[in-house]
Prior knowledge:
The chain crosses the membrane at residues 24-49, 61-85, 97-118, 124-143, 294-318. By secondary structure, the protein is an alpha/beta fold. The protein has 16 helices and eleven strands.
Amino acid sequence: xxxxxxxxxxxxxxxGRRSRRAPSVAAVVVxxxxxxxxxxxxxxxRATLPVFRSVGDVPELVALAAAPIVIGWVVVxxxxxxxSAHLLGAGTQEYKAVVRGSxxxxxxxxxVSFLGKVPLSRGFFFLLLLLGVPSLLAGRFFLxxxxxxxxxxxxxxxxxLVAGSAAQVxxxxxxxxxxxxxxxxxxxxxxxxxxxxxxxxxxxxxLGTTARLVAVVxxxxxxxxxxxxxxxxSAQQMRRAxxxxxxxxxxxxxxxSLTDVATDRVRVRPAAGMHLMELEGPxxxxxxxxxxxxxxxxxxxxxxxAAAPVLAITALAVRRHDGGPVIFRQRRVGLHGxxxxxxxxxxxxxxxxxxxxxxxxxxxxxxxHVLFKHVDDPRVTPPGRLIRRFSIDEIPQFLNVLRGEMSxxxxxxxxxxxxxxxxxxxxxxxxxxxxxxxxxxxxxRSDLSWxxxxxxxxxxxxxxxxxxxxxILWRTASAVISARGAY
Length: 487
C-alpha cells in the first residue's frame, strides 16, 4: 500500500470538514460586510438626506455605535441559527433566521437606547432597519447562488455513503445526482446483506454490508453516512451504529421514506423516546383559495399595465412580418380538465398547426415524451424567435389569468392530446389551475425530461404555498432573462 493510499481517507475527511465549515465562514464574512456597509450608508443618509433635520452630533454617535451594532447584529443572527451548516444553502429556514435575528437586533438597539438614554437618531435607526434586512437577504441569496455553482462543479461537496436496501439506495442516489447543488456526492452503498452483485441495480458500487460500517467509512473516506430504509432492522441496531461511528468524524443523516415533500408539511412529534413524523396532506385544495385568486388578479393587472409598450411593439412586429393574425389561440386543458383558449403572440407561420398534424415537423424528444418541442423548429418566424427567446409571446396569457383560466404560477398548461396519454398519477396536475410559470420553467423549461417536468408539477400541486409562488416568480425573471431552455 502506497503512502497516498494510506493518507487518502484522512485527506478526504479533512476536505469534508472544510466543506462543512466553508459555507458558515462565508456567511459570517458576507453578513459582516453587508451590516458594516448598511451601517455606514444609514449614517451617511441621515447626515445628508434633506428629509431629516439638522445633523448635530449624529456622525459622532454613529461612529461610536457602529462597531457594537455590526458585531451585535451578526452575533444575534448566529444565536438564531443563521450560521448553522445544516441550514445554509437550502430551504427557507436560513432566510427566516436572518429576519428574526435582524428584528431582535432592532429591538435590542431600541431598548438599550431607551434604558441607557443614548440619543441615537431615529432617522439613522429607520434607515438601518429599512436597508439592513433586504441587504442581508440579498447577500444570502447571492451567497447561495455561488455555493450552488461551486457544488455543481464538484467543489465543497460531501462524500456520501448510503446504507439501506438496494432499491432505497438507488432511489436516493438518483435524487442526489439530479440535484448536484446539494453538494452530496454518493460514493457507494452499504447493503444489509452480502447477497447480490458488486453494484446495485442502479449501478452504484456496493462497498460492503452494514455490519462493516466503521471499516467501510474509514476506507472510503466519506464524511456523511446516510441511513435509508432497510439499513437497520430495529432501533437498537440504529443506536449501535451511532455508537460505532462516535469516534469517526462523520455526519449521520436519516432519510425517511418521504420524497418530494416540503419541509413545512412535516412535523416531528416526540413520543416516549420515538420521533413521530406527522405529514400534512396534499395542498391542491389550498391552491384554489381566494387569496391565490386575488394575488393572481392583482399581479396580472399590474403586469399588463407595465407591459403595455411591449404589447404594442410586439403586435406591430408580428403583424408587419407576414400580415397574419397577431394572437394565436390554442386549446389547452385547465382546472379539472376544462378546455380553454390559451392566448399567445403568434411566433410561427400561419399554418403551423396544420404542419404539425401532417407530420411535417418531427419532435426531438424520446418516444415516451408527450411534450412537443423542437430545438430548431422551421415554422418559427424571425420575430417569433426573439419573442419566444424572452417569453414575450406569453404576455397575452395575463388575460387568461384575469379570466380565471390560468394562474400566475402553476403546472404547465397541457394540450388535449397530451392529457389523453396521462397516467392516473399525472392527472393530479389538473387539480389546480395551470400557470404562466412554475417549477418547470425556473428549473430548465424545455430542457427538462418528461419525468422531471411531471415530478416538479406534482411537487407544486402537493406542496403549494404563497411563499413558494413568490419564490418561483422571483426565479422566473432570471430564467427568462437568461433564456435558459427557451426555444
